[in-house]
Design goal:
GO terms for molecular function: DNA-binding transcription factor activity; sequence-specific DNA binding. The chain is built from ten helices and nine strands. With 277 residues, the chain is α+β, with helices and mostly antiparallel strands. The strands form two sheets. The chain has a six-stranded antiparallel beta sheet with strand order 1-2-8-3-6-9. The chain has a three-stranded antiparallel beta sheet with strand order 5-4-7, with no helix packed on it. Helix 7 packs across helix 9. The radius of gyration is 22 Å and the shape is globular.
């Protein structure tokens, strides 16, 4: 009996001029092989399916599904499918200076990324998958920046603790700062507020801001702000305001962005909601 043909190879890239410090690639059923090479970036790769032979200096390892590799900038390496095999993988690249800046904001983060390492951690693999879901989605660049900052901090914490997942309580002082930030977002929900500005406003690093805010509210600051915008949008629509006017008043880049965000939260288009209301 003949074997079913393998799915065709596919590859897609993500990059955003608004976020020049990061990019991502996803490859499916790839059989491409590479000579030993380096990147000017800190690279994080994850195996989705198949198997790959990872070589770094004198060390080699066979990587299976769920494995994650962390490769410092300028480290010679090669990661290829096993002979006659195909594999699917994700590869993230970060500007080392940007990563250092994120970690330096947090006085507790000082450990070096070196040397290159292989991690067999379901927790870390889920971090990679979650980040790429956000990067390849239509989410706003502010939301993607928060996801990137959170990923770098979470990955660093996982490396620091041997990839052991820990849930830490949010200190009362941090909780008060999150409450202050919620008030700020309610007052300025229609403004585009960069993550760095929000971090300065509450006196936290960008990573600790995202982590604490997510622990307290269940979402990132930008997602919380979008939710506030949609709440105000529903009120304006019920009052009979035109869709274009509502999108402009709420600070959306355009009407299509408003409609997409609205439908994700209300499960119907703004126009249909207005007619029903």
């Amino acid at each position: 009996m003949s074997r079913p043909a393998a799915a065709p190879a596919a590859s897609c890239w993500w990059a955003d001029p608004a976020l020049p410090f990061a990019e991502s690639r996803r490859a499916t059923q790839s059989s491409a092989s590479y000579l030993p090479h380096t990147h000017a970036t800190l690279s994080v790769g994850a195996v989705d399916s198949g198997a790959s032979r990872f070589a770094c200096g004198e060390d080699t390892a066979v990587l299976g599904p769920g494995a994650v590799v962390v490769i410092p900038a300028h480290q010679v390496h090669a990661c290829n499918p096993v002979p006659d095999g195909r594999w699917s993988y994700q590869m993230l690249h970060f500007d080392p200076a940007w990563v250092a800046g994120v970690l330096e904001e947090d006085s507790a983060a000082g450990a070096a990324w070196l040397p290159a390492r292989v991690m067999a951690s379901a927790h870390v693999y889920r971090l990679v998958c979650a980040l790429n879901r956000t990067l390849f989605s239509p989410a706003d660049s502010v939301e993607k920046e928060a996801a990137l900052v959170a990923f770098v901090g979470d990955l660093h914490a996982a490396i620091d603790t041997g990839a052991v997942t820990r849930t830490l309580p949010v200190p009362a002082a941090v909780s008060a700062r999150v409450a202050k930030l919620c008030k700020l977002l309610r007052e300025r929900h229609a403004e585009r507020l960069p993550l760095a500005e929000l971090a300065r406003a509450c006196g936290l690093s960008r990573y600790h801001l995202v982590r604490a805010f997510r622990a307290e509210t269940g979402m990132t600051p930008h997602a919380y702000q979008l939710d506030l915008r949609i709440q105000h949008g529903r009120r304006l629509l019920r009052q009979g305001a035109a869709l274009a006017e509502v999108a402009l008043a709420l600070g959306f880049a355009d009407q299509s962005h408003f409609q997409r965000a609205f439908k994700q939260r209300v499960a119907m288009t703004p126009r249909r909601y207005q007619r029903a209301a």
